[in-house]
Write a structure and sequence with these properties.
By secondary structure, this protein is α+β, with helices and mostly antiparallel strands. 47% of the residues lie in helices and 19% in strands. The strands form three sheets. A six-stranded antiparallel sheet has the order 3-2-1-6-5-4, sandwiched between helices. The longest helix is centred in the first third of the chain and has 67 residues.
Length: 555
């Protein structure tokens, strides 16, 4: 009668209840935190897209204005007039051309400053030929005229700024474009995008409670702020504050300073492209993420502050979590019933039949010390395995194990495109050794050489086999020629270090071995016997050429 009848099932049932309860709690927690992490990642991606979308929108506005301003600044009529300001014909032609350009701009007018006279003109789409006189004279001492002198003295083609149009009494996004001829500054043309229109188009979809969008200059000055879209002072008057003055959170300040340093400071040059957004986790606080990216054609950047729930709410995953947990409970209940019927009851019957073969010999595998079905099964399997696959003298795998295993190993290597190295080795003049010292010493010699082989084969997948008599085989999967030869050198040294006397050995005064090696990339059409044959041919070359050495042969 089976001694441990039913013990595994009883323990399985009791432990399974405990483990399932713990697993249920852990799974629920892990799923929540995993989904929370996914939510944050998705939210971060959304935040980056918001920043890029805003940067693209503003850069497209500015790009169109710059293209038109470039067209005007490089116009022959405009440059000729700026070189000869008081020539009426040239003035009329220049004004006609600039009025056409004004019609393509977002704004309804542009301003022209001439370097020679410092006269300032205003060009409007409805301006008649009789009204093209200067509106003022530019002065370095007048703050309102600073736009002209900053642009004419800069090393750039154009300068961007946010300032008041005192004639229109509106805040505008200004583009001041330098006009040159052969490297000589002739003047500046200037136009401005309507600030409230641009800001509204950029930030109209932002929820000011959970998302805040900013446009900042390279020194951190806030140029546009979605949270102030309803503030008339911000929309129509000068509003100057630095982004670092708006936040008291030390982590936010550090993140801003670091990002300003890496994203915004470009040696006073404009950005050539919209960079990959910098997405920074600034929680805890009102916002979760701060996202920054550059705006093409400017030295400005978009800064987006956003909250996770605004972008992607974790509660979207609640139905999924509930469904998964419900399926887990259903699986556990049905699995417990199925396990007993399909596994444990047949396992008991199998234990009874295998127990008759168990003789408790050889090395023990896991479970042999148990007093239950698994213990009986483990002992029986261990004994059968040892008898079938292990050489009793050396403890190495035998030839039967090699024959039954190599088809699977060759298949794995061929699918992975791996190499296989095979070594055949023979104890030199072993028959003479037996005749001289006796078979008992011969067995000790075989065991010692087998131990040396096992010590050299340190990798998990290396296989050492007693092929027969005094002949051994070493199988080295995923080993190239260099590795196989190094293994052979190591083995030769290990055997000679055993210092087993052998007076009838022509190659040495001690026991030595001869080795044959072959290596090749495994293909599915090959048989393992091809490797054995080639390695055996190499072994005979080693024997014929003096022994105590190795020989390598390619296929």
């Amino acid at each position: 009668m089976m001694r441990g009848k039913g013990k595994i099932f009883v323990r399985f049932r009791n432990i399974n209840i405990i483990l399932f309860t713990a697993a249920f709690i852990v799974t629920a927690a892990v799923m929540y935190f995993a989904f929370d992490r996914v939510t944050n990642q998705i939210s971060a991606q959304y935040a980056g897209r918001y920043a890029v979308s805003t940067a693209l929108s503003l850069s497209s506005h500015i790009s169109r204005e710059i293209d038109n301003m470039t067209k005007s600044a490089r116009s022959f009529a405009v440059t000729e007039w700026l070189r000869d300001e008081f020539n009426e014909d040239k003035k009329i032609r220049a004004f006609e051309e600039m009025r056409g350009i004004v019609g393509d701009l977002y704004s309804f007018n542009l301003y022209v400053g001439i370097e020679g006279s410092l006269n300032e003109y205003r060009v409007e789409s409805g301006t008649g030929n009789g009204n093209i006189e200067p509106i003022s004279v530019l002065s370095r001492d007048e703050p309102m005229d600073a736009w002209y002198f900053m642009c004419i003295n800069s090393g750039r083609d154009y300068i961007l700024s946010v300032d008041i149009d005192h004639f229109m009494q509106r805040k505008r996004v200004w583009i001041d474009y330098k006009v040159e001829k052969d490297g000589v500054p002739l003047g500046v043309i200037c136009t401005g995008l309507e600030f409230s229109h641009v800001a509204g188009e950029l930030f109209s979809h932002y929820d000011s409670n959970n998302m805040r969008g900013l446009i900042i200059a390279n020194d951190g000055t806030i140029l546009m702020d979605s949270s102030l879209m309803k503030d008339s002072d911000f929309l129509f008057d000068i509003y100057e504050t630095n982004i670092k003055e708006e936040f008291s959170n030390a982590a936010v300040i550090r993140a801003i300073e670091k990002t300003l340093e890496s994203h915004l400071v470009y040696n006073d040059a404009f950005h050539d492209e919209i960079n990959t957004p910098a997405i920074i986790d600034i929680s805890p606080g009102v916002y979760r993420f701060m996202t920054m990216t550059t705006i093409k054609h400017t030295d400005w950047s978009v800064v987006i502050f956003s909250d996770t729930t605004t972008l992607f709410d974790t509660t979207y995953f609640v139905p999924i979590i509930i469904t998964v947990l419900a399926l887990l409970i259903a699986f556990a209940i049905s699995s417990s019933a199925a396990n007993y019927r399909l596994i444990f009851r047949p396992l008991g019957k199998l234990d009874q039949s295998l127990n008759q073969l168990n003789e408790h010999s050889g090395e023990l595998i896991y479970g042999t010390e148990r007093d239950d079905e698994l213990g009986h099964l483990s002992n029986t399997i261990q004994d059968l395995f040892n008898k079938a696959n292990i050489d009793p003298l050396t403890g190495l795998y035998n030839r039967r194990f090699m024959d039954s295993s190599m088809e699977r190993i060759m298949g794995l290597l061929s699918r992975a495109g791996g190499q296989l190295s095979v070594l055949m080795l023979d104890i030199d003049f072993f028959k003479r050794f037996n005749d001289t010292y006796g078979h008992e010493e011969g067995d000790l010699c075989l065991s010692a050489v087998a131990n040396a082989l096992s010590e050299c084969a340190t990798r998990l997948n290396d296989i050492v086999i007693r092929y027969g008599g005094e002949e051994f085989t070493v199988i080295l999967p995923n080993t190239d020629t260099e590795g196989a030869c190094k293994f052979a050198e190591k083995l030769l040294a290990h055997v000679i270090k055993l210092k087993i006397p052998h007076v009838k050995n022509d190659a040495s005064e001690f026991v030595t071995v001869s080795i044959g090696i072959t290596t090749r990339k495994v293909e599915h059409t090959q048989e393992f016997t091809e490797f054995l044959k080639r390695a055996d041919e190499a072994l005979y070359i080693s024997k014929d050429s003096g022994r105590n050495k190795y020989t390598y042969l390619d296929f």
